[in-house]
């Protein structure tokens, strides 16, 4: 145990954020660089090293949290990094982006603020990179087997790194122009600077992983031919079919899916554009959807100089305290204020969009641009949301982003049909206990098989699917498999 009295003598302190008026003028990460170092050892000392560490259950990766908390408390950053990497290929991603279900499962959190596990994690990995302790781990020998990984998000990268280190020759195919999937183009720069992805990719290249960007399997290369070319294929293409909003006026200009809007802002940071083709500058912005993607749209709109930002959510406003029906150690649906929400804007709950109102089309335009969004308050009755009479109103809306989640794997590019993959009832690629699909030699990991989920589940699935592939190719595997395809988060 790090500090036997740490949880009694030390209060919870989290990473310090930069002032709002400063950070909305740039795209750098919102946290003050180095602000954790003076406090993080004591924060790690709050860990009680529980006899049954429920933080392990909260995290699908099975992170050895009490162990690396102890090393961090003692200042042994090298040992802490080794324990962290034992279960997590990319802790600098999870330490910045994960909503930390480990913290809501922390035993200390029963009656006190939980240990700042996420902050300790990101400090450990940042210290490891600074010290040069994160080095390539190429295999001692090659197996002679080849694997194609389709998709370079966290699941695809985790599977590729595990399989490369097992000695297989791995090529990652990514349809975008850069590696990273939604980490690259779905996560704004202010949440995670892309240099973190770049140095991991360089580590993986040094280990032997090959990367093929700008290649969409199903369109540029026939998926069936890809299967014949490789000994195994891992589908880690995500669940990228966005949920739409089929209401009158949807065809108006200025209404975009979040994943059509967010990547353009990231491409500006990559130097591809001077200004994004879709911008919130000077506009009244409405974000439909109250989740993380919606918050990303809010923060992006602030930085682009929006005139106003309003975020709509059909669900009621959550409680700020853990609801009675969501007991520890489950992940509670509580009211959260992200860094983007701290920066301004209005959040409106229990409302549903009825239709959009637009301007008259200009010369050469087929339709006009959205100008107003009409909404109505709703109540949940008899299993559905019902409008409340007399609550209709309209709000200015010159740019609308739809951030309502995703419904399954992409069916338009031919990947599913060309391979003949079976889908489950939710539109995800069906798989067995080894992450193998209905097609011999083809496996699936991440959101493509699980559905929309968290980054920790994606990495855990990538690691687990790698074991299934390795066992098929060699007859046995020593790679870890932290979760089964049927495992789900602690919930009620």
What does this structure look like?
The protein is built from 19 helices and 16 strands. It has helices spanning 6-9, 20-23, 37-44, 55-58, 65-74, 77-85, 91-97, 101-104, 117-130, 154-165, 182-185, 195-207, 223-229, 258-269, 292-303, 339-342, 415-419, 447-450, 455-474; strands spanning 146-150, 169-174, 210-213, 232-235, 241-242, 255-257, 284-288, 308-313, 346-349, 351-358, 370-381, 384-387, 393-396, 399-402, 406-408, 442-444. Helix 3 (37-44) crosses helix 9 (117-130), helix 5 runs antiparallel to helix 6 and helix 7 runs antiparallel to helix 9 (117-130).
Set down the secondary structure blueprint.
Elements: H1 6-9, H2 20-23, H3 37-44, H4 55-58, H5 65-74, H6 77-85, H7 91-97, H8 101-104, H9 117-130, E1 146-150, H10 154-165, E2 169-174, H11 182-185, H12 195-207, E3 210-213, H13 223-229, E4 232-235, E5 241-242, E6 255-257, H14 258-269, E7 284-288, H15 292-303, E8 308-313, H16 339-342, E9 346-349, E10 351-358, E11 370-381, E12 384-387, E13 393-396, E14 399-402, E15 406-408, H17 415-419, E16 442-444, H18 447-450, H19 455-474
Parallel strand pairs: 1-2, 1-4, 2-3, 4-16, 6-14, 7-8, 7-14, 8-9
Antiparallel strand pairs: 5-15, 10-11, 11-12, 11-13
Helix pairs in contact: 3-5, 3-9, 5-6, 5-9, 6-9, 7-9, 10-19, 14-15
């Amino acid at each position: 145990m790090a500090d036997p009295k740490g949880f009694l003598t030390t209060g919870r302190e989290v990473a310090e954020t930069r002032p709002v008026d400063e950070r909305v003028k740039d795209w750098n990460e919102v946290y003050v660089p180095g602000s954790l170092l003076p406090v993080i050892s004591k924060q790690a000392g709050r860990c009680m090293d529980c006899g049954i560490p429920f933080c392990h259950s909260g995290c699908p990766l099975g992170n050895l949290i009490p162990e690396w908390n102890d090393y961090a408390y003692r200042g042994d950053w090298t040992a802490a990094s080794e324990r962290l990497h034992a279960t997590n290929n990319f802790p600098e991603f999870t330490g910045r982006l994960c909503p930390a279900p480990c913290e809501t499962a922390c035993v200390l959190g029963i009656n006190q603020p939980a240990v700042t596990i996420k902050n300790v994690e990101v400090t450990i990995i940042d210290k490891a990179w600074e010290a040069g302790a994160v080095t390539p781990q190429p295999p001692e020998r090659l197996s002679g087997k080849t694997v194609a990984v389709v998709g370079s998000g966290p699941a695809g990268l985790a599977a590729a790194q595990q399989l490369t280190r097992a000695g297989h020759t791995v090529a990652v195919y990514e349809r975008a122009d850069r590696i990273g999937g939604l980490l690259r183009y779905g996560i704004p720069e202010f949440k995670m600077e892309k240099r973190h992805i770049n140095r991991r990719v360089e580590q993986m290249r040094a280990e032997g992983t090959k990367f093929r960007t700008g290649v969409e399997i199903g369109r540029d290369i026939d998926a069936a031919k890809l299967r014949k070319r490789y000994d195994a294929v891992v589908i880690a293409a995500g669940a990228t079919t966005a949920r739409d909003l089929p209401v009158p006026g949807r065809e108006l200009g200025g209404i975009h899916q979040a994943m059509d809007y967010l990547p353009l802002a990231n491409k500006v940071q990559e130097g591809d554009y001077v200004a994004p083709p879709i911008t919130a500058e000077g506009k009244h912005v409405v974000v439909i959807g109250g989740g993380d993607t919606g918050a990303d749209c809010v923060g992006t709109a602030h930085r682009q100089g929006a005139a106003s930002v309003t975020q709509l959510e059909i669900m009621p406003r959550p409680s700020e305290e853990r609801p009675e029906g969501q007991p520890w150690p489950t992940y509670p649906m509580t009211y959260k204020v992200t860094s983007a929400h701290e920066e301004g804007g209005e959040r409106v709950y229990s409302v549903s969009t009825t239709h959009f109102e637009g301007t008259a089309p200009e010369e050469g335009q087929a339709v006009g641009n959205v100008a107003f969004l009409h909404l109505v308050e709703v109540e949940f009755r008899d299993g559905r949301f019902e409008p409340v009479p007399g609550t209709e109103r309209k709000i200015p809306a010159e740019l609308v982003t739809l951030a309502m989640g995703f419904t399954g794997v992409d069916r338009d590019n031919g990947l599913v049909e060309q391979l003949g993959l079976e889908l489950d009832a939710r539109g995800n690629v069906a798989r067995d206990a080894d992450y193998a699909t209905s097609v011999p030699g083809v496996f699936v990991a991440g959101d493509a098989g699980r559905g929309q989920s968290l980054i920790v589940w994606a990495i855990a699935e990538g690691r687990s699917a790698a074991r299934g592939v390795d066992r098929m190719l060699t007859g046995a595997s020593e790679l870890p498999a932290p979760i089964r395809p049927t495992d789900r988060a602690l919930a009620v």
